[in-house]
Design goal:
The complex is a heterodimer of chains A (281) and B (294). Chain A is an all-alpha fold and 281 residues long. Chain A contains 14 helices and no strands. Chain A has a single domain, classed as MetI-like (MetI-like fold), CATH 1.10.3720. By secondary structure, chain B is mainly alpha-helical. Chain B folds into 2 domains: 53 residues; 236 residues, Orthogonal Bundle (MetI-like fold). Chain B is globular. The chains are: A mainly alpha (281), B mainly alpha (294). The interface between A and B is large, with 102 and 105 residues.
């Protein structure tokens, strides 16, 4: 600690335990998170860039990555629209059962993904409660990419609602009154004044839902059908490669997925920086 | 905003006369859309779990959750959570003490790194430990010669679970402790209390509800994790199957009633988690960090 102070890395404090707490934190973080993740990158590096590129752009891998990304994009878009409506309704309107619905929004965070997966499959299978209504119309959900989208909508919903809700709660009503006073009708106030202010929160929720959906496994595999090139998601392909003892291939696909997730998170940071610049917080 | 302050506003809102709300047909439509979406995507799957679980009758339900493999899965799930959750509590306390009570270089980097596991796919969370400790992994040969098994055994399951639940406690405590500052601790120390005494008598009581909140969320994820555990467990019935993995095996054997019976226990856990979470948010909103909304 004395050394740390000498280098002025830590501001002096009257409180004890900094060395112990930070030392334990860094050791635990390194052992559980950093070293294992480094092993992933190291393993895919053994392939060399050409080898890595060949695996990641192989037809089956590319199909799986593309499927994971685009179904996630679709699900996150659906969640951005309906999540915003749900947040709006929960914050702005009083109606019986509002608090129950509010609490219920977190269900996808609390319900184990495997349970969600088999429940959604039971609902959307051709003989299920919902699937049996859709089957005569020629709409198939379970065991197709549509089923993947349904599962991803389920797990992504709370991200949008929970990021938009607090921003809407703190929204200054005087802005709405000013807008109305200046002659805007309600639709103009909502679409020209309020939604632009909510947009950064909606985009953040959208990106968080997207990042979660790209890596999702448990709720998807039961409903997907898992046919290579059609309904095989990237995380499943990792497990298949691992079962064939293709450690390096699995690591390469994993590294590609990590890069996609970090790209999305970078987007979140940029959106939040933009929000701070625009709204000063 | 207090309820009293917005009460007059709500009355006029209900008449639909103020300029800061929508016309009533729009309101009804939006409420209808929100409720329909939540019923379709959240309520119906939950209901389906319980309906399917009891489809074969109450006798079959209890048979399914008391057969030896199911009991072994329940025991393993409880054991894994009993190791992983306390480990992350100790980490969360240490991390939040260092981050919230001190100013040091690299703090924001550390904060970002703690949240890292949330942005990693569950499958990758398992994969990284297989790469390290699996048969062909970096330490595979060494572990084999020492006769230590990590992958396809309890240690691997615990490690994967710790990884996926890593940030839960820390992210509840850090913002709250940052808000609380260091005055209380400085007062205790200046009155002669030791560092540990200050921590246990001053800091810990200040953060107890936020800690409980983090533990409840951490525990729900620890008991329900599927993807990460699935990669490292090896699916050995009665030995390395946790409850979610047992559900998968039963389901893939077309034993749907039994699969949903075990799943209903996990769904109950989710409901209990939500009830505790909401109760803590209502009762102790001011003592849970500003980040209570996820």
């Amino acid at each position: 600690m004395a050394g740390a102070r000498g280098l002025a890395l830590k501001r002096p404090s009257a409180l004890p335990g900094f060395g112990l707490a930070l030392g334990f934190t860094l050791t635990y973080l390194s052992l559980i998170v950093l070293i294992p993740l480094a092993a992933l990158v190291l393993k895919s590096a053994t392939l060399g860039f050409a080898g890595f590129w060949e695996i990641v752009t192989g037809a089956r891998t590319l199909a799986a990555l593309r499927l994971s990304f685009f179904t996630s994009l679709f699900a996150a878009t659906v969640n951005a629209v309906f999540g915003t409506i749900i947040a709006w309704v929960l914050v702005r309107y009083q109606f019986p059962g509002r608090r129950l619905l509010d609490a219920f929004v977190d269900l996808p965070f609390a319900l184990p993904t495997a349970v969600a997966g088999i429940a959604l499959t039971a609902l959307y299978a051709p003989n299920g409660w919902i699937g049996s209504w859709l089957a005569p119309l020629g709409i198939k959900i379970a065991y197709t990419p549509n089923g993947i989208a349904i599962a991803l909508i389920f797990i992504g919903l709370p991200f949008v609602v929970r990021t938009v809700q607090p921003v809407l709660e703190e929204f200054d009503r005087e802005l709405e009154e000013a807008s109305a006073t200046l002659g805007a009708n309600r639709r103009q106030t909502v679409f020209r004044v309020m939604l632009p202010a909510l947009l950064p929160a909606i985009l953040t929720g959208f990106a968080l839902a997207l990042a979660r959906a790209v890596g999702e496994y448990g709720s998807v595999i039961f409903i997907a059908g898992n046919l290579p090139f059609i309904s095989e998601i990237a995380p499943l392909l990792i497990i298949i490669r691992l079962e064939e003892f293709g450690y390096a291939q699995a690591a390469a696909i994993g590294t590609a997925m990590l890069m996609i997730s970090f790209g999305i998170l970078l987007l979140v940071h940029l959106v939040q920086a933009w929000q701070r610049r625009r709204f000063g917080r | 905003m207090t309820d009293a302050a917005i009460a007059p506003l709500l009355v006029t809102e209900q008449r639909g006369t103020t300029v800061t709300t929508e016309q009533w047909p729009v309101r009804i439509l939006l409420i209808g859309v929100a409720v329909a979406f939540l019923v379709l995507f959240l309520f119906m799957p939950l209901a389906a779990v319980f309906v399917e679980a009891f489809r074969a009758g109450i006798g079959a339900y209890f048979a399914a959750i008391t057969e030896p493999d199911a009991l072994a899965a329940i025991r393993l799930t409880l054991l894994v959570a009993a190791i992983a959750v306390p480990a992350n509590v100790v980490f969360g306390l240490a991390a939040s003490w260092a981050i919230a009570k001190f100013e040091f270089t690299g703090k924001s980097v550390l904060n970002t790194l703690i949240d890292l596991p949330f942005s990693v796919s569950p499958v990758i969370s398992g994969l990284i430990y297989v790469l390290l400790f699996g048969g062909q992994g970096y330490f595979g040969a060494f572990l084999h010669s020492e006769n230590i098994q990590i992958i396809f055994a309890l240690p691997g399951i615990v490690l994967a679970t710790i990884f996926v639940t890593f940030p839960f406690v820390a992210r509840e405590l850090v913002p709250l402790m940052q808000e609380q500052g260091t005055q209380d601790e400085e007062a205790a120390l200046s009155l002669g209390a030791s560092g540990w005494k200050t921590f246990f008598k001053v800091t810990l009581p200040n953060i107890r509800w936020a800690l409980l909140y983090g533990v409840v969320l951490c525990n729900a994820r620890a008991m329900g994790e599927f993807g990460a555990v699935s990669v490292v467990s090896g699916h050995i019935r009665g030995k390395t199957n946790t409850m979610p993995l047992h559900v998968e095996i039963l389901y893939n054997e077309y034993n749907f009633a039994a699969a949903f019976a075990v799943a209903s226990l996990l769904a109950l856990l989710a409901l209990v988690t939500l009830v505790i979470k909401v109760a803590l948010e209502w009762r102790y909103a001011d003592q849970i960090a500003a980040s209570r909304r996820h």
